[in-house]
Fold this sequence. Notes:
alpha/beta, TIM Barrel, Oligo-1,6-glucosidase, domain 2, Immunoglobulin-like, 18% strand
Amino acid sequence: MINNQQNPTWWRNAVGYQIYPKSFYDSNNDGIGDLPGIIEKIPYIKSLGVNFVWLSPFFASPNVDNGYDVSDYEDIDPQYGTLDDTFNMIQQFHQNDIRVVFDLVINHTSDQHHWFQEAKKSVDNPYHDFYIWRKPVAEKEPNNWVSLFGGSAWTYNPATDEYYYHLFAKQQPDLNWENPKVHEAVKQIIDWWAKHGVDGFRLDAISHLKKNQSFADVQDQEAAMNNVPGIDKFLSELSADFKHDHLMTVGEAGGVPVTRAQEWVNSKTGYFDMIFQFDHVSFWEKFTVGQIDVAMLRKALTNWQNGLEGIGWNALFLENHDLPRAVSYFGNDGNLRQQSAMALAMMYFLMKGTPFIYQGQELGMSNVDFDNIDQYRDLDSKRFYQEELAKGATKDETLFKLQKKSRDNARTPMQWASTGGFSNHQPWIEMNPNHRTVNVANEQADPQSVLSFYKRLIALRLSDPILLTGKYHLTDTHDHQLYVYVRESGHQGYLIITNLSDTPASYQITSDYRNLELILTNSSAEQNPAAMKLQPWSAYLYKYERK
Length: 547
C-alpha cells in the first residue's frame, strides 16, 4: 500500500524507470506514444522490479522543445491523451505498487502559456512581472547573455518595447522568480498534482531559477544564470511546498558542485531528496566527441559518492532524455554491445544512491546513425547543424557529431519486437534499425540478455541492506580500464570489478577478502580471484567477508 506520509524516505530503497512518453508505446497508431500506451505496458514495467516511474513532460505544449515548453500545467497535450487518462495511469501504477514522479518545468514556460500571452501585452498587465524584461540598450539586446540553444538569450517584444529573457529557445521565456506571485502560482500547481496522486517531481533546470540581477555583460555565462547566489531562498520556499505534500524531489542541477550539493540534499535541511549531477557525462560539452577516460569517470563518480556520504543521497544514472545512449557513449556498441551494456550497468547500479534506468537502457539500446539532418527532430541538434555549416564545417563532420551526442539518440522509439512494436504507423521519429535484433521480445526469451541482467541487478539492489546503507570505497587501480569498488557494512560487503575497455585486463583480489562468493557476472570465463584475467567489458560481483 502506497503511503508517502508514513514512509517519507521510500525513495532510498527504490529503483526508478524513466519514461519518455512520446517514444514509449503508441496505443492508437498515430505514430506518437501516449498515456494509454504506458498503461498497457505497466505489466512490463512491473516485471522489471522497479518501484517508481519518472515521466518526461506530457502537459499541454506546442512542443517546440518536446514538451519542455509547457503551455498549461494542469492539462494534457491531446496527442498523449486526456486528464482522465492521466488519473487512470496514476491509479494503475499505484495498484501495482509503483509510484509516479512527474517532470516539473518551472524555470520557464512556453510563450503560448496564458501567463506570457498576457505578460507581453503591456507593462501594466498583472502577469508582466511573471517574466524577465529589459529595455533595449543602444537599440540592441540589453547584454551579452546567450541562450543554451545558441544565439542571444533576449528576444524583442514590440508591444512593450522590451526584450524578454530565455535561457533556452525564444519560445521558452524564463519565469521571474524574484516575483513572489510566481512562487504562489507554482505552489498551486504542485498542490493540484499532489491531490491527484503524484508522488514526486523531477525539477527541470532548477539550478537556473536565480539570475544575476545586475544584468551586466559577463565573461563567464555561468555567472549569469547557473547557481547564482541567492537561489537558496527560492529553493527553500519550494522545498517547503514539496514537504507539505510529502513529495519526493529530484533536482536537475547541472553545474552545482558537490560542495554545494551537500547543502541542496542535506538529509535534515536540504531542498531536495536527490539531485542529478552531470560531472560523469560531460553534460555541457554537448557535441564534443571523444573516448571516455575511465580514470576520469572513477574520479567524478567517487567524488560524489564520498562527498555526500553521511550527508545526503545520490541519484545514480547513465542515461536520460537529454543524453546519448550509454552503450554508445561509454561502451562499445558494436560486437561488444551486450557485454559493455552489462558492465556499465553493474558499474553504476550498485553504488550508494537511487538508481535510475532510462527506457531502453535495460535492453542495451544504442545510438542511431541518422545520415541526414531531416531525420533529426531535436531543436538543439538542428540549430547546431546550421551553425556548424555556417562556420565552414562539412555536412559529414557535423552529422558525425550529432550521431554521437544528439539528444535524439535517446528519443528513438522503444524497441518492443523485431517488427518494431512501437506503432503500426510511421513513428514521429525513425526507429533504430537494430530493433530487428535488439528488442524486448528477444531479450525476454534470453536468460543471458541485457534485460535479464538488469532484472537481476534490480532484485539484488532492493533485497540486500548492504547495497542500501553500506559505504562506498574505491579501489584505485591507477589505470584507464578498471573500475573496482566495494559496498561494505561491518565485516561483509560486495566487491564490484568491471573492465570498461576493449582490451583484456588483469586484477588480483587480495587476501583481505574471504569466503568470496560469485553473485553475478556477464562472463563465462572461470576466474582465479588471486589472478583474474578480465576479458573486454567483463563484470564480476562477489560477496565477501572481511578478516
